[in-house]
Design a protein that fits this description.
Subcellular location: Membrane
Strand content: 25-35%
Shape: globular
Order of helices and strands: EEEEEEEEEEEHEEEEEEEHE
Number of helices: 2
Membrane topology: Single-pass type I membrane protein
Strand order of the largest sheet: 5-6-11-7-10-9
Domain Peptidase A1: 86-307
Helix content: under 10%
Low-confidence stretches: 4-67, 293-307
Family: Belongs to the peptidase A1 family.
Keywords: Aspartyl protease, Hydrolase, Membrane, Protease, Signal, Transmembrane, Transmembrane helix
Number of strands: 19
């Protein structure tokens, strides 16, 4: 993945959606020394079919009308909410078995339920896929919440509201888990979008998005719009709640410029935070306290601060 973290000026995390409506909360983001703007020349037309062309610095420009990727096809391809997670529909195996897959930037394995579980309605039946191949390697992954165990294999995946094409990927067939699947969830697997360093059983296992980039030739960039904060966790029907744009960013989903900040270490998306402000007021957060909480497991290991 490109060694820059993408920030959307509005609605990256703090946004509220109801049904298919647009986000209503807007929180400005300021970047302090080291900032640079890579999107001033971007075409901001919101209705077009695009191909992706790298500008050399990691930003994918939507500029070629003869392209094969339509970012607008990926808009609203996420469902869920901030409490139960955001998921995308995928077709796994041959013939394809439809599964909802949780999107996670804090892990690097693509893993799907391959056995019944009380909290899920269906699972990936490896015996019914003519293209599934087991490597015989056991895999164990521990998350901030829950853990899973299974076996590593390979198969083919397509994404109805994603890039066109079928991708051969590494897949963990989940055979047992503890606290991973929860009551009320509508997903049956997880898509880890972090770097190979976090992949299990070792970093040789190519993560899902790396496979997409290598096989479909799209730029090494993805962007996330996550809405749905405040929706009742008891809701039985999940409305569209955001977008996972693979290959760049859809200008119709944001206002202003896109900014990048360097990745400090390629495992989680670890960046250096110098200062946080809300409404022009400096929060004066103690960096040491934040770091202590991170290593105690109270926060994701995606932030580094410097006093």
């Amino acid at each position: 993945m490109a060694n820059f973290a993408l920030f959307w000026i509005w609605a990256f995390v703090f946004c509220l959606c109801f049904g298919a409506t647009k986000c209503h909360f807007s929180i400005p983001l300021k970047i302090y020394p080291g900032k640079y703007n890579l999107s001033a020349e971007a075409n901001l037309s919101s209705v077009r079919v695009v191909a992706l062309k790298s500008d050399g610095d990691g930003l994918s420009l939507a500029s070629d009308p003869s392209g094969t990727i339509n970012f607008l096809d990926m808009v609203n391809n996420l469902q869920g909410d901030s409490g139960r997670g955001y998921y995308i529909e995928m077709s796994v195996g041959t013939p394809g078995q439809k599964l909802n897959i949780l999107v996670d930037t804090g892990s690097s394995n693509f893993a799907v339920a391959a056995a019944p579980h009380i909290f899920i309605t269906h699972y990936f039946n490896t015996a019914l896929s003519s293209t599934y191949q087991s490597t015989g390697r056991p895999v164990a992954v521990r998350y901030t919440q829950g853990s899973l165990k299974g076996e590593l294999g390979t198969d083919f995946v397509s994404i109805p509201k994603g890039p066109n094409g079928t991708i051969g990927i590494n897949i963990v067939a989940i055979l047992s888990s503890d606290g991973f699947f929860l009551p009320g969830i509508n997903w049956q697997g997880i898509l880890g979008l972090a770097y190979p360093e976090l992949a299990q059983p070792d970093s040789v296992v190519e993560p899902f998005f790396n496979s997409v980039v290598n096989q479909l030739g799209i730029p090494d960039t993805f962007s996330l719009q996550m809405c749905g904060a405040g929706l009742a966790s008891s809701s039985t029907v999940d409305p569209p709640a955001g977008s996972l744009i693979m290959g760049g960013a859809e200008p119709a989903l944001y206002r202003g410029s896109i900014w990048y900040t360097p990745i400090i270490q390629e495992w989680y998306y670890q960046v250096e935070v110098l200062k946080l402000e809300v409404g022009e007021q400096n929060l004066n957060l103690d960096c040491k306290e934040l770091m202590d909480r991170k290593w105690a497991g109270e926060t994701e290991g995606e932030t580094c601060c410097k006093g």
